[in-house]
């Protein structure tokens, strides 16, 4: 399975909607999801979609370790590597 | 404490916004058409009153669209319109003074169907996280409360069509308990395969395929009702609060209300709609002669029509009060139906004109009610009675009265 890139993550984030004041094409990689308008349920939804698109299984504590887009990319890519 | 209605918001088959709805109702423009939200050609019921020209992507904040069902999308817009109509900016009202109580009878069926299909075809991990908050009856109330920062008491009433009146009565109780502004009313949307199939189980839906004949309440050939979707929101407000912020003359006062529950089928005891009417009039401190118009529940099923016609003529006398049934144009909108009737009743009071059914509407000769037909009837209206029944035996009656002289 190919690595998860930021553009692909943003595509999934867009399916959850975009807050009025937020530009996902700006410098967001280290901005907490919460400040981008995505609450914990939205992050769960994003994780669920990543599970499907990248054939990984997120643990219950993944929420704590995926607070920003960069953390999400690292977390998912580690899972992909571990599974390969 | 006097409860008044200071704002209205409508998303209905008859139109989006109160004036579009009202002009459709007065013109008698029916919204009953073949179901277009899904392919219903293989279903026994193929007609409905759908809300057309509603695009959630344009009318609902982007983050909220994927989190919520079509029924909540319409709920957001109706609430926003009603607040704007009342000229209330929720940011300027203390958050605990604002309450939300809506009616809902289907929950998020379309959303739920999508997720259930994923569950059974692709497995539990494919079910989206938002299913947890989108499907249940209180979702619209909760979302409206969060969006507008309304932290007073919140609730939902789930008893089908009667709930729309019960919610407004509950709003009045909340005002008595100290709330100042309540977002009330309701919407419903159940025009998806799962939602329609659930409705079929009552056996009360019309299987006629002629839009002009399929839903004929109070006629001799009544053969059931058609489903509709949408609804309205009402801002129910403490009259003193409305006056203190210079809200102008409200649309009307919530003057009286009562609810009853029918005995079980086969008990031999009569239905109790009449009691609901009499108790609502008593609650308003008026007599039948004070009521200018009745908005009927108009189920379109022979037994239910007879019960309602008998209840009305027993209280008001034979042909004793004009009766309107605008839901013929929209179908039965469940939790959204009675709130829309409240809007129509308040506009009837505002403009002094009672909407009519088509001229050729043949009323059952056994029903002694003055069903308004032909042209809308121009007459002064100060007091309107709205009736609603919910599947399973719920009856509710609400008295609306003009404010001022």
UniProtKB/TrEMBL annotation, chain A:
<feature type="domain" description="Carrier">
    <location>
        <begin position="2"/>
        <end position="80"/>
    </location>
</feature>
<dbReference type="InterPro" id="IPR036736">
    <property type="entry name" value="ACP-like_sf"/>
</dbReference>
<protein>
    <submittedName>
        <fullName>Phosphopantetheine-binding protein</fullName>
    </submittedName>
</protein>
<dbReference type="InterPro" id="IPR009081">
    <property type="entry name" value="PP-bd_ACP"/>
</dbReference>
<dbReference type="Pfam" id="PF00550">
    <property type="entry name" value="PP-binding"/>
</dbReference>
TrEMBL record, chain B:
<dbReference type="Pfam" id="PF00109">
    <property type="entry name" value="ketoacyl-synt"/>
</dbReference>
<dbReference type="InterPro" id="IPR014030">
    <property type="entry name" value="Ketoacyl_synth_N"/>
</dbReference>
<keyword id="KW-0012">Acyltransferase</keyword>
<dbReference type="InterPro" id="IPR016039">
    <property type="entry name" value="Thiolase-like"/>
</dbReference>
<keyword id="KW-0808">Transferase</keyword>
<feature type="domain" description="Ketosynthase family 3 (KS3)">
    <location>
        <begin position="1"/>
        <end position="402"/>
    </location>
</feature>
<protein>
    <submittedName>
        <fullName>Ketosynthase chain-length factor</fullName>
    </submittedName>
</protein>
<dbReference type="InterPro" id="IPR014031">
    <property type="entry name" value="Ketoacyl_synth_C"/>
</dbReference>
<dbReference type="InterPro" id="IPR000794">
    <property type="entry name" value="Beta-ketoacyl_synthase"/>
</dbReference>
<comment type="similarity">
    <text>Belongs to the thiolase-like superfamily. Beta-ketoacyl-ACP synthases family.</text>
</comment>
<dbReference type="InterPro" id="IPR020841">
    <property type="entry name" value="PKS_Beta-ketoAc_synthase_dom"/>
</dbReference>
<dbReference type="Pfam" id="PF02801">
    <property type="entry name" value="Ketoacyl-synt_C"/>
</dbReference>
């Amino acid at each position: 399975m190919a690595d998860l890139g930021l553009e692909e993550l943003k595509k999934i984030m867009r399916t959850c909607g975009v807050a009025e004041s937020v530009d996902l094409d700006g410098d967001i990689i280290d901005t907490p999801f919460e400040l981008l308008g995505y609450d914990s349920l939205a992050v769960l939804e994003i994780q669920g979609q990543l599970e499907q698109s990248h054939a990984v299984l997120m643990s219950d504590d993944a929420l704590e370790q995926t607070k920003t887009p960069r953390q999400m990319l690292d977390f998912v890519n580690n899972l992909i590597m571990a599974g390969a | 404490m006097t409860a008044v209605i200071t704002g209205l918001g409508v998303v209905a088959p008859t139109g989006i916004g109160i004036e579009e709805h009202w002009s459709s109702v007065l013109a008698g423009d029916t919204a009953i058409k073949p179901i277009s939200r899904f392919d219903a050609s293989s279903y026994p019921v193929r007609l409905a009153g759908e809300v057309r020209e509603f695009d959630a992507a344009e009318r609902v904040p982007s983050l909220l669209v994927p989190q919520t069902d079509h029924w909540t999308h319409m709920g957001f817009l109706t609430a926003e319109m009603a607040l704007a109509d009342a000229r209330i900016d929720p940011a300027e009202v203390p958050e605990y003074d604002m309450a939300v109580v809506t009616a809902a009878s289907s929950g998020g069926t379309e959303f739920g169907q999508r997720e259930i299909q994923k569950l059974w075809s692709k497995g539990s991990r494919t079910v989206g996280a938002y299913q947890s908050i989108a499907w249940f009856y209180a979702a619209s109330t909760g979302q409206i409360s969060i969006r507008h920062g309304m932290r007073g008491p919140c609730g939902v009433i789930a008893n089908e069509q009667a709930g729309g009146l019960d919610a407004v009565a509950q709003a009045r109780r909340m005002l008595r308990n100290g709330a100042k502004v309540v977002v009330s009313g309701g919407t419903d949307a159940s025009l998806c395969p799962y939602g329609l199939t659930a409705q079929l189980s009552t056996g009360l839906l019309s299987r006629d395929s002629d839009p002009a004949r399929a839903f004929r309440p109070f006629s001799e050939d009544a053969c059931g009702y058609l489903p509709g979707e949408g609804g309205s929101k009402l801002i129910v407000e403490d009259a003193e609060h409305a006056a203190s912020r210079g809200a102008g003359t409200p649309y009307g006062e919530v003057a009286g209300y009562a609810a009853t529950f029918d005995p079980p089928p086969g008990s031999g005891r009569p239905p109790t709609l009449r009691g609901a009417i009499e108790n609502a009039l008593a609650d308003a401190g008026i007599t039948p002669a004070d009521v200018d118009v009745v908005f009927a529940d108009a189920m379109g099923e022979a037994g239910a029509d007879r019960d309602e016609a008998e209840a009305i003529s027993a209280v008001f006398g034979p042909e004793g009060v004009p009766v309107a049934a605008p839901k013929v144009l929209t179908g039965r909108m469940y939790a959204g139906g009675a709130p829309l009737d409240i809007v129509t009743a308040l506009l009837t009071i505002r403009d002094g004109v009672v909407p009519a059914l088509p001229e050729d509407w043949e009323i059952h000769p056994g029903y002694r009610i003055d069903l308004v037909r032909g042209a809308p009837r121009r007459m002064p209206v100060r007091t309107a009675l709205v009736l609603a029944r919910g599947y399973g035996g719920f009856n509710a009656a609400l008295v609306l009265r003009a404010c001022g002289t």
